[in-house]
């Protein structure tokens, strides 16, 4: 933690960056005073405030989202340093890969990560119930894209009890899958929190916001909701870095992570691409191989 | 057309399948009359959202057809389209919708009989699956 704060202080004092985007400890209104505290994104612009920064298992947020072009008010602050876990570094690599940002315009402070919680309200402890399922089998516990990397390597996290839910759902018959999804998607209120929190949803104008032509019904009906989530899954194919922030942000608790993880698995199996921290690997949906499988085409 | 007859929307590429379908017509081949043909410049012009939209607006089945790989008028269009369709099909299936409602095919300008086969097969399959009623229209969803 001290290493992180020292580095942030030095970067700000030297003028290397104007803002450090990291995490800070926060009391949550409504939670018991003695109970668990949460962490939230912090924007440090002065070296003497660098002591606010923390990093531990509660730091679930993918801070790469603040590098999206839509966040022009943040870009106005000046050059940023961002605290990234391995999964967040993959998102930064994705933004560089798709020319949304330039690598030299951001300083990446990598943190070695021992896993994060699924829900900070259950406390900071990494138990099988509370560890995020994205951490299962993580190969990027030390980020692979960074300018500085800080902190000791914590022990690996336990495997989430929820890690198997994708295979369970995929094994069910089609009718059961549809009744599952139609029930889940019918709860969507179309707040677009999944889109706003997603670092890879980087379109300046989302197709869902376009009125002419109107691709997606804007009211939260089963039809519009299905269209919206199908469209988002399609557009995330080959982009999703598996941070599952969409699922965490969803106020209705729709398991969007299942859809994203399934699409990511299909992309890996069919096109041999897995979200990685190397921006020079081409995006799978922007390229092709002549020998791609076409067993489904007559 | 009887109420049980399915409506099928076909997105066909201008250079191969549309010409192939045209050849089927001028050759007076008999085929199922359920298909509405929409001509697009290339199979890669077909966003998977076209297919979603077709189902939303009352189609029971969709055909997407273009040039054989390697024959694309724009050289690489159908290679890109193939990746997109593969992903779309997997999402459609994962949600629990029947992928049999969507047919992807490569039909060249000379393959009039293959086009007839695609149309007849898709119509028969969609007819067996019945009307697409996965979700109610907004009007029905809001009504008490």
How do you describe this structure in short?
The complex is a heterodimer of chains A (298) and B (144). By secondary structure, chain A is an alpha/beta fold. Chain A is built from 9 helices and 6 strands; from the N terminus they run αβββαβαββαααααα.
Characterization of the model:
Chain A has 298 residues and is α/β, with parallel strands linked by helices. Chain A folds into 2 domains: 2-150, no CATH class; 165-286, no CATH class. In chain A, 30% of the residues lie in helices and 10% in strands. Chain A has 9 helices and 6 strands; from the N terminus they run αβββαβαββαααααα. In chain A, strands 1, 2, 3, 4, 5 and 6 form a 6-stranded mixed beta sheet that branches. The model of chain A has no long low-confidence stretch (mean pLDDT 90). Chain B is of the alpha/beta class and 144 residues long. Chain B has helices spanning 17-26, 48-56, 77-94, 112-129, 138-142, and strands spanning 8-13, 35-40, 61-66, 102-106. In chain B, strands 2-1-3-4 form a 4-stranded parallel beta sheet, with helices on both faces. Chain B has a single domain, classed as 3-Layer(aba) Sandwich (Ribose 5-phosphate Isomerase B, Chain: A), CATH 3.40.1400. In chain B, α1 (17-26) links the parallel β1 and β2. The interface between A and B is large, with 43 and 41 residues.
């Amino acid at each position: 933690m001290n290493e992180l704060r020292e580095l942030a202080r030095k970067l700000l004092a030297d003028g290397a960056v104007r803002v450090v985007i990291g995490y800070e400890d926060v009391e949550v209104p409504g939670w018991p005073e003695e109970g668990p505290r949460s962490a939230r994104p912090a924007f440090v612009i002065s070296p003497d405030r660098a002591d606010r920064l923390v990093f531990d298992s509660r730091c679930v947020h993918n801070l790469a989202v603040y590098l999206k072009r839509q966040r022009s008010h943040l870009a106005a602050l000046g050059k940023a340093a961002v605290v990234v876990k391995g999964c967040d570094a993959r998102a930064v690599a994705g933004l560089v890969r798709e020319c949304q940002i330039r690598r030299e315009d951001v300083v990446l402070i990598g943190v070695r990560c021992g896993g994060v919680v699924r829900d900070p309200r259950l406390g900071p402890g990494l138990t099988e119930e509370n560890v995020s399922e994205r951490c299962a089998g993580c190969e990027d516990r030390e980020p692979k894209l960074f300018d500085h990397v800080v902190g000791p390597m914590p022990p690996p996290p336990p495997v989430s009890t929820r890690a198997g839910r994708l295979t369970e759902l995929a094994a069910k018959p089609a009718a059961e899958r549809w009744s599952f999804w139609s029930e889940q998607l019918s709860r969507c209120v179309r707040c677009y929190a999944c889109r706003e929190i997603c670092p890879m949803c980087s379109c300046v104008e989302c197709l869902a916001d376009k009125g002419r032509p109107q691709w997606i019904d804007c009211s939260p009906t089963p039809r519009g909701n299905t269209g919206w989530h199908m469209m988002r899954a399609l557009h995330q194919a080959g982009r999703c870095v598996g941070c599952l922030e969409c699922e965490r942000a969803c106020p209705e608790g729709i398991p969007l992570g299942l859809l994203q993880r399934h699409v990511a698995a299909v992309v890996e199996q069919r096109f041999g691409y897995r979200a990685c921290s190397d921006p020079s690997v081409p995006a799978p949906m922007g390229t092709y191989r002549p020998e791609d499988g076409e067993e489904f085409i007559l | 057309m009887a109420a049980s007859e399915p409506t099928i929307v076909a997105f066909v590429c201008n250079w191969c399948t549309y010409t192939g379908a045209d050849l089927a017509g001028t050759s007076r081949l008999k085929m199922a009359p359920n298909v509405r043909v929409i001509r697009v410049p290339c199979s890669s012009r077909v966003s998977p959202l076209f297919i979603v939209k077709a189902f939303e607006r009352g189609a029971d089945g969709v055909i997407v057809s273009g040039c054989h790989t390697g024959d694309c008028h724009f050289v690489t269009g159908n290679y890109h389209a193939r990746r997109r369709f593969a992903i779309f099909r997997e999402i459609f299936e994962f949600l629990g919708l029947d992928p049999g409602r969507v047919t992807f095919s490569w039909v060249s300008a000379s393959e009039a009989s293959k086009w007839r086969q695609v149309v007849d097969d898709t119509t028969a399959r969609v007819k067996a699956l019945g009307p697409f009623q996965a979700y109610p229209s907004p009007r029905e969803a809001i009504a008490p």
